Amino acid sequence: MIRKYLKSNAVGLLLAGSTALSAQAFDLSAMSEAEEVEFGEAVRAYLLENPEVIMEAVAILQEREAQQEVARDVDLVAGNLDALHNDGFSWQGGNPDGDITIVEFLDYRCGYCKRAHPEVASLLAEDGNIRLIVKEYPILGEESVLASRFAIAVKQLHGDDAYKLVQDALMAMRGNVNEASLTRIAGEFGHDMAAIATQMNSEDVSDVIRDTRLLGQRMQISGTPSFVIGDHLLRGFLPQAGMQDIVADQRDKG
Questions:
Q1: 4, 39, 44, 5: which is closest to 23 by C-alpha?
Q2: What is the pLDDT along the chain (254 residues), one digit of tens a residue?
């Protein structure tokens, strides 16, 4: 792509400065070996005299690739919208009738997820017209899986409010996720850890993790946190102000 761009910008100069090269010769497949060498030398000379052309070409290429990626992401969101918004098991918070839906894929062992947690909470507190859907997406090892199984089991046994409390506790944790730390969290909220442990090993919990992983794979999500804001797919952490800008753009799109 860059080569084509450079060639088109160099054509005028080459035709003006070289009698050996005809217009037809700029079809590379029709060039003789000597013409190809002369053309290469002319392009090199042109670029040495006009190096800004290279940066211009790279910028155009990057912009086109970014636009293509955005279009792909919009298609991914549209193709998976029902699973994103209506899977029947993901926790939902904020305003259930909000005009903007944010779907967050998170891992409790992810440092950026921990940074994003208060930013998202503040965004919802300041904007009362956003629905939040949380997807348990443990991808950082066994401790991540253990934490997600715990949170999902609490939700299935004790409901949405209990889930939100343990989610906040897991995000605030700075130590290892293990039986002792999870038992401590369960005790803080008056839950029976033995019952939770049994539920953690159930097929119901395994199904949630499996289905969410399959969704994440279809969405080409390989890291956390990842967010779907309207039809915008955001891969990675973004402070509250940046998320507010995306929300505003989504509202402007109607």
A1: 39
A2: 444 444 444 444 444 444 444 444 456 677 788 887 888 888 888 878 887 877 777 777 677 766 666 678 999 999 999 999 999 999 999 999 999 999 999 999 999 999 999 999 999 999 999 999 999 999 999 999 999 999 999 999 999 999 999 999 999 999 999 999 999 999 999 999 999 999 999 999 999 999 999 999 999 999 999 999 999 999 999 999 999 999 999 999 87
The whole model's pTM is what? 0.76
Rounded-to-integer distance, Cα 175 and Cα 109, Å: 10
The maximal CA–CA distance of the chain, rounded, in angstroms, is 89
DSSP 25: G
Residue 107's H or E segment, with its range, is none
Q: b vs e for 232-244, b when ≥16 Cβ sit within 10 Å of the residue's Cβ?
A: bbbbebbebeebb
CA trace torsion 173, 152, 149, 101 (10° rounding): -70
